[in-house]
Design a protein that fits this description.
Layout lengths: L19 E8 L9 E9 L5 E8 L9 H4 L3 H4 L5 H12 L3 E4 L2 H14 L8 E4 H8 L8 H8 L9 H22 L5 E3 L36 E4 L7 H10 L3 E3 L8 E3 L8 H9 L3 E2 L1 H8 L8 H7 L48 H6 L8 E5 L3 H13 L3 E3 L8 E4 L9 H7 L3 E2 L23 E2 L5 E3 L11 E6 L7 E9 L11 E2 L11 E7 L2 E6 L10 E9 L4 H4 L2 E7 L7 E5 L7 E10 L2 E11 L3 H7 L7
Parallel strand pairs: 1-4, 4-5, 7-8, 7-9, 9-10, 11-12, 11-13, 13-14, 15-24
Antiparallel strand pairs: 1-2, 2-3, 5-6, 16-26, 17-21, 17-23, 18-19, 18-22, 20-21, 22-25, 23-24, 25-26
Helix pairs in contact: 5-7, 6-7
Length: 635
Amino acid sequence: MSLVSPSPDAPAIGDYAYDWALIDVETSGLMARRDRVLSVAVITIGPDGEQTGEFSTLLDPGCDPGPVEVHGLTAERLRGAPTFDQVAGRIGAMLQNRVLVAHNAQFDYDFLAHEFARARMRLPVSQRLCTLALNRQVDPPTDDMKLGTLAAHYGVSRQRAHDALDDTRVLAGVLRASLREAARLDLPLPLVTCPPRAESRFTPKPPKTPCAYRNPGRPTPGGPLRQGMKVAITGETAHARAELVGRAVAAGLNMMTSVSRHTSVLVTNEPAAGSAKARRAVADGVPVVDEQTFLRLLADVRPGAPHEATAAGGAPATGPEAEQVEPVEPVPTTASAVPTPETAALPATSPRVSAPAPGPSESSAGTSDKLLAGRRVLVLGGVHADAAAARTRVVELGGSAAINLSASVTDVVLLAGGEGDRRMKRINALELPVHDLHWLASPTTTDRSAVALRLQEPHVMPRGGVIDLPMPHGGPAPEWYVTAGWAPQSDCEIDVVAFLLDEEEQVASDEDFIFYGTPESPAGTVRLLTGGPAEQTIALDLASLPPATRKIVVAAAVDGAATFGTVGAIQIGAAPGSSGAPLARATLDAATTERTMLLVEIYRRGPLWRLRAVGQGYDHGLDALARGYGVDVAD
């Protein structure tokens, strides 16, 4: 059976013909560097779509099996099963020279990488394909992207959920159907390169003890220290650095690895040595004390104000003092004034604001009917400013602006030069309605019954739009997944990053900067996930963040000399859970010269968390953005 059925104008079979190794693991928890694999199944498939091998086994993890109510694997069932190191060789042989395939592939890949590292073996995977990411590109009209939902949509039978072997067999059917859809839409596969993993990467790193107190600022000359003050140390010290840090943390101080304008005190025995921290302290007027003075001050640290007091009192934690929130249900019927991101506190660097391209007048936008509600419009061609203006108009009319061709695209708008876009051949084959720019002035649409609508369409957010993230009633709070996607690039790479910030818009430590070099916070509450070369996700366990974390800023940076003017729009989706339906979606256009862009902010507002679509860019690089948030970037 062929993976891709032949059809007129279909891409070459070689674009989709690989040796595949489909895999599913059941685990004792969700954190790969801590939890263990309880069962594993592998199915191999050749380029022609025929199955070539199958293996599955239970495993003895040597630990508590965790949520038995989810996977049904009790300690009794696992007793006597082989350990992972006993089957690692067989699994490795099945993965060798094949593309690893899984649903939410980074989860399975990370668990395998840790298990192979514990067995002192190399994980023989150089590429992986995530069927979840692939279907986010295909965008079928399903209410979520769970494996069972996709199986039902594609007509794949399922016997036992959370059974590794059955899930892998279902995955094979979903992969075949997804590849057929990818071929129909002429989509590139979101293959992820998997470089060799160093064993040291899997050593658990203890998280920094979060400071329980708000920063009271700097001490008065000759005055005492107060709990919550931010303290940094530089240079040689008579006492071990770990001892000084431990004593300061025990006293309630917030020990930092960098110096910023929010630092309360810098401790150094060599103020004239010219270290980067000392230079910044001088530039920002930070008080400097020597080690002996610091030890004396530690003996009398005054009480501080706990973070919980602010959060519990419902006072604004961050963001503008007055703010209009756009609820998801019901969608407002009239436009509300939403402050633009320029009003929010930003890093102390020179921004270049990405103002929205000019569109229709306020009066016409306010009175216009939502003629494109439920429709997804792809804009092709035009210079960046014209394309951005067209996408803005689509959103004003209640539609969603697409950045790539997918199964959910209902209309195409052609600007100058758009007829030469490589996707036009496929658009014509799919018989999608194609319009010129004048159509957006007063669009007419085909019969709505021809549009495959979901039960719950994502809320379309304009730039500056704000929503409350729903909180569960009684049940566990979900992880939130903020996914950024863009048109595939051939001459540059884009990095998505996250900053965990306190009330002063600063990181508490360098570990609160999540990027490709440190893709997971020490406590595992914020993670960077890669679904493909044109998609990255920040996963957030908001319920487990310390009270000192008031805001998470998600940003993107272009690696190299390219700018967002050549990259084009960035699409943002926010969903509860890795396979959840997007609650909200925004399409953000940057100006032509920007190399970094703030995408969204997720911040506390009393007992709630809110999400704001930002879309503000800067001409400088990621290192300058990180320094603005207090990250200690080497000069």
